[in-house]
Amino acid sequence: MTPVIAVFGPTGIGKSAVVVELARMLEARGETPVAINCDAIQVYRGLELISGAVTAEDAGDIEHRLTAFVPVDEEFSAGKYAERAHAEIDGILDEGGTAILVGGTGLYLRAALCEIDFRPAVPEALRAQVEAELEGAGAAALHAGLPAEYREAIHPNDRKRIARTVELLRDGQVPARDHRGGGELWTARLRRPARLFGLVEDDDELMRRISVRVDRMVETGAGEEARRAEAAGASRTARAAIGFEEFINGDTERIKLLHRRYGRRQMTWMRRMDGVTVLERVGRGDRDVASDMLARIESGRAEMQA
Fold it and tell me: Which residues pair with 119 in a beta bridge?
């Protein structure tokens, strides 16, 4: 059985470009690779610039799935994503293809790789109430009202997790345990054989990459994109895009700061994952990194067949 390939790493490190190179190498060997998005914002149609989604020009002839398929005014969740991702992965492998997961949202990556018991949705009225409180009082206020065990595990700026935790508690549900509590999000049990790669970069260089990335977003119209999404009634989960409000207000430096913080959190996610092969990005081009991945993949396949 061909294992799933997963490529994870912080924002701005060039995951998509490496995956496109890897896919082309696999094609040259007679395989049929298909990239599957694991970014929570790239699922939205109309947020391609803000989310840094791979462009058609950059993707070339490499097929990418689960990108820009959710209307921007709809709520979307990791549970819904898991259903779609599992179906895509199973279909690709059953047809003899190679599934390559790529993205920076750790929860979505684990949702694609594992069988996770996601909590059911709460009533819409409760969700609307929490959303109104979040907008009115702010994330910090709701965070301060959480029980200590959840308050300590959730960053005070993580609006999405704060809102979800408040919703579940008020609905009488027990939020899923985090990694420190032994939550199954961090389980090593995978639903399909997989090879996981994590890209890392020198901190100064990563910060430079992020700055260039944000400048490019602004130059290509991310602010206009955010304003269009807002006018279209962007959902709470869509508005969770890093810098959504700041793009609307034109606060580029704040956007860069938020992306830098997020990049460092992503690095923390990666270090917690079991079975990740960490590859240094420092001073290496996309093709070089992809070649390194391919060599390790082929070595693993040889071991499986031995």
Answer: none
Yes or no: say if 20 and 59 are a contact pair by the CB < 8 Å rule.
Answer: yes
Q: Mind listing the pLDDT tens digit for each residue in 15-32?
A: 999 999 999 999 999 999
For the chain, report the end-to-end CA distance as a whole number of angstroms. 13
Of how many residues is the chain composed?
Answer: 306
The Cα 62–Cα 137 span in angstroms is: 45
CATH number belonging to the domain at 4-115+193-305, selected among 3.40.50.300, 3.30.450.20, 2.40.50.1020, 3.30.70.100: 3.40.50.300
Query: Contact, 96 vs 32, CB < 8 A?
Result: yes
Look at residues 195, 233, 236, 201 and name the one whose alpha carbon lies nearest to residue 11. 201
State the sign of the Cα–Cα–Cα–Cα dihedral 21, 198, 92, 78: negative
Q: What is the mean pLDDT of the chain?
A: 89
**Which residue type, as a one-letter code, is found at position 91?**
G
CA pair distance 190, 177, nearest whole angstrom = 18
